[in-house]
Structures are given as structure tokens and as C-alpha cells.
Amino acid sequence: IAANxxxxxxxxxxxxxxxxxxxxxxGRLFAYVENYKVGSTTIVDNLDEHHCPHxxxxxxxxxxxxxxxxxxxxxxxxxxxxxxxKHSMAKQQPITAFSFVRxxxxxxxxxxxxxxxxxxxxxxxxxxxxxxxMDLKEPQRFSAFVDYITDQGTRIVEPFTRKGNGDGQxxxxxxxxxxxxxxxxxxxxMFSQTWFLSQYPGRIQYIGKFENNFNSSLxxxxxxxxxxxxxxxxxxxxxxxxLYSFTKKYLKEPSLRQTIERLNRYFAFELxxxxxxxx
Length: 279
Hints:
Elements: E1 7-11, E2 18-22, E3 29-32, H1 40-49, E4 73-78, H2 83-86, H3 88-92, E5 95-101, H4 104-121, H5 128-134, H6 140-152, E6 161-164, E7 171-175, H7 182-188, H8 193-197, E8 206-209, H9 214-225, H10 257-266, H11 268-274
Parallel strand pairs: 1-7, 3-5, 5-8
Antiparallel strand pairs: 2-3, 2-4, 6-7
């Protein structure tokens, strides 16, 4: 996907995705190709639970203080855009990469709620256009944001980017202040899944579907593929997200039928690529 672009957007801090190795198999590399709003928080939290204690680098993995009978993870790199070019082990060893996808329209609606949360956190510092949209009433606000986001695509974060040289003929723009801008962070949750997957430069061997036994698939990846001990039951109780639970009914809201159809058309490529039917 990314190879066919003339214009590409990447995160300056390289915060999407992780490269791991394990204590019991230090010659094997695993990459989690992060995809927002597809169980990514659950996945990252589970992997964090398996980090080798008090180990900050590959060299400290076999410290005597570590229980050698228990396998654990070491994070070799965060961010996957240039993971093979930058990391020496990745040049020498094949990487086993995995990710998950979700129905694109369902994911957009879920991301919309998260986007609103980010915008409410920092309403006073929003750009004028975003602030105008936020001042609308639901469900008209949802329709207006759908029109704006599907029209702009990744251009929507141009106020927060700086231009880079890129690779080859591609012009790469980098989100410069993701950590300091709730607006950039909010809009990032609306980016397509193909954008997130294209942040990883190699082959992704395992792609699970969020709707198809997500917990079982994650357990297989962690215990069978990565040889970790277990999958933890992790739940983040974000009370503020409950304020946006009204968005869950939008897929079946008659007055939003045209808006949902617009999303079906916008995500036609992903619907076909990942094997989903339009909503």
C-alpha cells in the first residue's frame, strides 16, 4: 500500500507499533503492528505485563535476578516505520509480525467517541474548524465530522505536521507534536486501518479479526506463537468514555443512513480487502 503512494504521513515519534524479543528465544523477533480501536490497548497492556522485570535492554535479559523459568519480553524498538532499516537484529533475523483488523465502519464509530474525548479535554486549544464542528449538536455533529474527515483524509492533521525528505520519491510528512496536541491525537484515531498497517514496512504474517474470537486469537499469539505464560484479563474503566456511549446506536439510526452509506463508500477498499460487508 505505502509503496504506491506519492505522499505519505508518518508519526515523528514512531509511536505506532513495537518490536520485541523474548528471553527464552532471543534470536526470534516479534512485531506488533498497532492498529488503533482494534483492541490495541488490551494487546499493549498484556504485552507490558510480560516485560522482563528491571530490564531496559537486550543485554540485561539474562540477569541473575530474573526468574529464568519464566519467559518474558524485552522491547527492542517502538514504532515500525523504519524498523528493519534501523535495527541491526531485524536486518539479520526474519520478523514475525501480527495485527488485528475490524469492520471499518464499526471502527470509525468507535474512534469517533475517542476523538470527542480528546477534543473535550482540550477544547480551548482546538483549531477554529474543529471547534466549529464540536459546537454542533448530535447527531448532526457526527454527520458533519464524517463529511469533514472523509473529505480531508490524512490532510486533516496538516496543521500539526512538518515536511520531511522521505524515501525515494515519496514526500513524507511527520506529526510533530502528537504528544502535545489532543487534536492531532483525536484525529489519528480516525485514520484508516490500511494507514496503520502500512506503518510497518514488512510482511504481516498473522492478521486476526476483532469480531472473530479476539480473546482466543490473542491467547494463541501470546502463548503459542510467543511462548508467554498467559493472557491477562485487563480492563480499563474510563468513566469519561461512557459520556459518548450514545455513538453505539449510530449504525442503526435511520436519520444517519446517508452518513453510514458515505462511510461504506469511503471504506470500500478496506471492506473488500478484509472481507467485510457494508453496514
